[in-house]
Amino acid sequence: MTAPPDRPKIYHITHVDNLAAIISDGCLVSDRVMIDRGGPAEPIGMSSIKKRRIEEIEVDCVRSDWHYR
Question: How far is residue 9's CA from residue 45's CA, in Å, rounded to a whole number?
C-alpha cells in the first residue's frame, strides 16, 4: 500500500444552503451531530444510507490532535 500524499485533497458535497453552518462551525460534523442539532438546512444524499450510518455503524474517529468546536 502506498502512503497518502502529504496534503491530500478532500472534497465534500453539500447544498449551498448548508455553507453558512459549515463556515460557522469551522469544520464538518457527522450526520448524527446534524440530526441532534435539528438537521441540516438542506439535506442531500440517500436517506437509506444516512439512516444506516446513524443507526447501525459505529466509528471511533476521535484523535488526540482533533478537537470539536
Answer: 21
Residues 39, 18 contacting (CB under 8 angstroms): no
Check residue 69 and give its pLDDT.
46
Spatial contact of 42 and 15, defined as CB atoms under 8 Å apart: yes
Distance from chain centroid for Cα 27:
8
Question: pLDDT digits over 1-53, tens only?
Answer: 788 888 888 888 999 999 999 999 888 888 888 888 898 888 888 989 888 88
Give 26-37 pLDDT, tens digit per residue. Answer: 888 888 888 888
User: Contact, 41 vs 21, CB < 8 A?
Assistant: yes
CA distance 31 to 54: 7
